[in-house]
Amino acid sequence: MTPDPDNNGIGEENVEPSNEFDTTKDRYTIVVFGDSISRGVIYDGEKKSHTLLLESFTNLVKERLKGIVYNAAKFGNTISDAVQRLQNDVLRRKPDIVLIEFGGNDCDFQWDAIARDPTGTYHPNTDCSTFTETLLDLVNKLQVMKIVPVLVTLPPLDPERYFTWVSHNAADAKENIGRWLGSVSRIYSWHERYNAAILSVAEKTKTRLIDIRSAFLQTDDYTSLMCEDGIHPNKKGHQLIAQKILNYIETDYTFLLTTNPQISAR
């Protein structure tokens, strides 16, 4: 059975999935598929705005890889957004490998609405069970198409900074959001649930996993690697992510590395 590249769902259950690399190729096509973190978005405190970091982890890593890297990450994307653009932004590139990084927007809430009325009932952008099922479907689809998926965990957010960010540092908003949360630490634990979902999918599907979250948490102060908004890694954070990915590749997948300059692609 040949997978239908225009089908964004699963449904290819009769095809034996593959999670193996072809180690004989001269070059590989790799797609980075994620949200603003993979895109290289940081918060510039001086400019008071989000901007693209030239030395993002994607740009740092791609210089070492054999082949071409496409950055298909997009600011604000959830896993459902990703599925909708899978064909145009990923599959049409005919990738050998897809690095998958989602979850940060999925677990987020409509904070401005909560700030206006903390007594209401609110739901995350993507329910955790839906996030898990959709990520599972995405991984399975890629495997069926003989594309190797690689999952990455979520960098830990800084709950205090993020709380200040989503409340716009306004006293009334802080009071109402804090009332709804019960505890600011709940922001961290809620975010961690989606990271646990990624770990679960990796285990269930035997998918390769790069645990960048642990790399952050093993530092003396991971918050020093985060931007003022509390959720985007800063320049040093991107350097850490790049090093973690390269260490992973250098351990078991040296055939992906090259000593020659790498072809760039947006």
Shape: globular
Number of helices: 11
- Main β-sheet, in a few words? 6 strands, parallel
In N-to-C order, the SSE pattern is: EHEEHEHHEHHEHHHEHHE
Oligomer: single chain
Count of spatially separate domains: 1
What is the CATH class designation?
A: Alpha Beta
> Which parts are unreliable, with pLDDT below 50 for 5 consecutive residues or more?
1-15
**Roughly what percent helix?**
40-55%
Q: In order across it, which strands form the biggest sheet?
A: 7-6-5-1-4-8
CATH architecture, please?
A: 3-Layer(aba) Sandwich
> How far is the first residue's CA from the last residue's CA?
32 Å
Task: Give the name of the CATH superfamily.
Answer: SGNH hydrolase
What percentage of amino acids are in beta strands?
A: 5-15%
How is the CATH topology named? Rossmann fold
Structure description:
There is one protein chain. The chain has 266 residues and is α/β, with parallel strands linked by helices. It has one domain (28-260): SGNH hydrolase (Rossmann fold, 3-Layer(aba) Sandwich), CATH 3.40.50. The chain has 11 helices and 8 strands. The strands form 2 sheets. Strands 7-6-5-1-4-8 form a 6-stranded parallel beta sheet, with helices on both faces. Strands 2-3 form a two-stranded antiparallel sheet. β2 and β3 (49-52) form a beta hairpin. The chain is globular. The model is unreliable at 1-15 (pLDDT under 50).
